[in-house]
Design brief:
heterodimer; A: 2 domains; 10-stranded mixed β-sheet; 9 helices; 21 strands; globular; B: about 260 residues; alpha/beta; Rossmann fold; 6-stranded mixed β-sheet; 4-stranded antiparallel β-sheet
Chain lengths: ~425, ~260
């Protein structure tokens, strides 16, 4: 089994996609064929270990199968559930439909709402960024469009859930979110599968367009099984006075390479990029973040925090870029790693690229074990070591989990972390 | 035999011997003060008794209620009834004082997350904590804050005594609890400690200065210099130090006054 040109055509035909999308898939396929695996002498890929990943072994498509898991949160205003690579089933509150909210699989949206999809799809997450992004753009299947018109506010969150029950295939959903001017809402993407023997090739990419004055909260919760190799690009494009709160939770997979980026395009735009991860066993996670201040009076606030156990490895590299015209920008970036085992290893690389002097930029990185003084202090009050350690790790996560944009997701992530702490 | 028996205790830090064989007995109902100049080994004594990981016991033994506590982990020592009010309380982000106090109290009652009947109820917890907030002049809002985060020096010390009051130890070690305290804080802290004082509590006050002893009257005073006790006696030893300082043993000015923070 391998990816082929035929599989690209087949996926396009299967869901009756319009010609422009088929053409775009073909273009991405050409890129995929033309470029090789990333050069490991390049800085971004230097620490990335592809061990065990062979792109030739994956089927391009996974039929819907297996028992569907329950929903992670209750009371969502809209739910899209995707099984395998099959376009998902959607439920959306009637009132939101009446207000013009569009929520449907991407293939359907490409046909029915090309004006929303055509110019935006893969404009922020570009197909030629690397071979994996090209595979994603050529072979994505299912996926989601959420469009919220101008001035529409949605109280309860919208949920996308992507489930895979088989190994050996590519599961490549893509989330496209378009927020009109002054729209306000929260969105949760959940990716999950059982752990299997056969590797899987997965993504979980998202493009989020935040209109003028809009406020969007986006949480991505990655719980792929331990057989999965994940390559995801999550990027927000933020217009004047818009605000994006992106929260990345990475827990699953054998391997995860995640880019999380904010493209601050309009004056007064703001972005919060927050992340939490827990790596155990032989998991490898690589995070690359970008706070791209294209224009002035923009704000970005980034905090990625994670814990590592066993022989897990994590790489974090974050760039704050302040363009020439971006005066009065304010950027903050911090990465904190709690290393719970002598054999786990975290590498943190903060970077700044500043072309304007009238800005405020702060960054910092820490890698270290549980503070022995904190541990002793808790123990000196009668709290056993295991409980004290657990409390300190929970406390460590608490600072960032408190920043999850909406309560249901906050509870969910707290529970997931609790479960990981055992 | 006293409830706490320190016998010929020798302790080193980074291969340097700090305590050079000290012996001391404290029984419940007694208040002992260990006084000494800077670097005499006072904090080494208190931290060693609580199992601080930075100190190495080279010899001797410490028995509490007949048990050799040097063989016990810090949490087991706490549950046995020993409490140390730290000189420099630790800031622990992300854990609220509420959670900390409740978990500590539950650990003392043997609740390990399983048998819910052993866990302290919210109502009982309030009844155990709130009266002491009043005595120590601690705002209730402190309970929802992270452990010692953003607390002033005086607030940290008062919160140490709050923990002591809630956990009700049989032996309380107060390590320089008076240092860095303004006079009001010393009064609140002393009032709380005097309330707890009684036949079921032994107290070991570690201090450089005599000031706190004006508020908490000791039964015994021991002078620690260069890792050994050089003088032991009743409260009159504190008066002697008040007048003459440690000049008999070291070249240091009188310890009676301190600039308060």
């Amino acid at each position: 089994m391998a990816f082929t040109k035929e599989s690209v055509e087949e996926i396009a035909s299967l869901h009756g996609e319009p010609d422009w999308l088929r053409t775009r898939r073909r273009e991405a396929w050409e890129v995929y064929e033309r470029i090789g695996l990333p050069d490991r002498s390049e800085e971004e890929w230097r620490r990335v270990d592809f061990k065990g990943l062979d792109l030739e072994t994956f089927a391009a498509f996974e039929p819907a199968n297996g028992a569907a898991p329950g929903l992670p949160i209750e009371g969502a205003a809209g739910v899209l559930q995707q099984r395998g690579s099959q376009p998902g089933q959607v439920e959306l509150e009637e009132e939101l439909r009446r207000k013009g909210v569009i929520f449907m699989p991407l293939s359907q949206a490409a046909k029915e709402h090309p004006e929303l999809v055509r110019d935006r799809l893969f404009s922020e997450v570009k197909a030629d960024r690397d071979k994996f992004a090209a595979a994603h753009a050529a072979l994505f299947s299912g996926g989601t469009l959420l469009y919220v018109p101008d001035n529409v506010e949605i109280e309860r969150p919208i949920l996308g859930q992507y489930w895979s029950s088989g190994g050996g295939a590519a599961i490549l959903p893509h989330t496209l979110i378009v927020a009109g001017c002054n729209a306000r809402f929260n969105y949760l993407d959940e990716f999950l599968s059982p752990s299997l023997d056969e590797p899987a090739f997965t993504s979980g990419s998202a493009e989020i367009f935040v209109g003028e004055g809009a406020a969007v909260g986006y949480v991505s919760l990655q719980k792929w099984g331990r057989h999965a190799y994940q390559f995801a690009n999550q990027r927000a494009h933020i217009a004047k006075d818009g605000s994006a709160r992106i929260f990345n939770v990475t827990l699953g997979g054998r391997f995860a390479k995640v880019r999380c980026e904010a493209n601050l395009q309009g004056h007064g735009a703001s972005a919060e990029l927050k992340g939490v991860y827990f790596a155990s066993g032989d998991q490898f996670f690589d995070f690359h973040t970008l706070q791209d201040h294209q224009t002035g009076d923009t704000t970005s606030d980034l905090l990625f925090k994670g814990a590592l156990e066993d022989t897990a490895r994590v790489v974090y590299a974050g760039l704050i870029r302040i363009e020439k015209g971006a005066a009065h920008s304010d950027a903050y970036q911090a990465n904190r790693n709690l290393v719970l085992s002598d054999h786990a290893k975290a590498t943190s690389i903060p970077m700044l690229e500043i072309d304007n002097n009238d800005v405020r930029c702060t960054h910092g990185a820490t890698v270290g074990p549980v503070d022995p003084m904190s541990l002793w202090y808790l123990e000196s009050r009668g709290i056993p070591t295991a409980t004290a350690t657990r409390m300190i790790v929970q406390g460590f996560f608490g600072e960032v989990v408190d920043r999850i944009p909406f309560e249901q997701a906050r509870h969910l992530v707290e529970e997931e972390l609790e479960a990981r702490l055992g | 035999m006293a409830d706490l028996e320190i016998k010929d205790l020798r302790v080193s830090v980074e291969d340097r011997e700090i305590l050079k064989g000290i012996s001391l007995g404290i029984s419940k109902g007694e208040v002992h003060a260990v006084m000494g100049p800077n670097g005499s080994g006072k904090s080494t004594l208190s931290n060693t008794l609580m199992g601080h990981p930075g100190y190495k016991v080279e010899g001797g033994e410490v028995l509490f209620k007949g048990k050799d506590i040097l063989q016990l982990t810090p949490d087991a020592r706490s549950r046995l009834g020993i409490f140390l009010a730290l000189q420099y309380p630790v800031v622990v982000p992300g854990i609220t004082m509420n959670n900390f106090l409740r978990t500590a109290l539950n650990a003392h009652r043997g609740y390990d997350g399983k048998d819910k009947s052993k866990a302290v109820s919210p109502k009982e917890f309030r009844s155990l904590v709130e009266p002491h907030l009043e005595t120590l002049k601690i705002e209730k809002s402190f309970l929802s804050r992270y452990i010692n985060e953003g607390f002033s020096g005086g607030e940290k010390k008062r919160v140490e005594i709050l923990q002591m009051a809630v956990l009700k130890p049989e032996l309380a070690i107060l390590d320089e609890t008076d240092s860095g305290l303004d006079i009001d804080s010393i009064k609140y802290v002393s009032a709380a400690i005097n309330q707890l004082r009684g036949p079921d509590l032994g107290v070991l006050i570690i201090t450089h200065y005599t000031r706190i002893l004006e508020f908490i009257k000791p039964d015994f005073v021991h002078v620690l210099v260069n890792g050994s006790f050089v003088l032991s006696g009743g409260p009159e030893v504190a008066d002697l130090l008040e007048a003459k300082g440690y000049s008999e043993w070291v070249d240091e000015p009188a310890p009676a006054e301190e600039v308060s923070a």
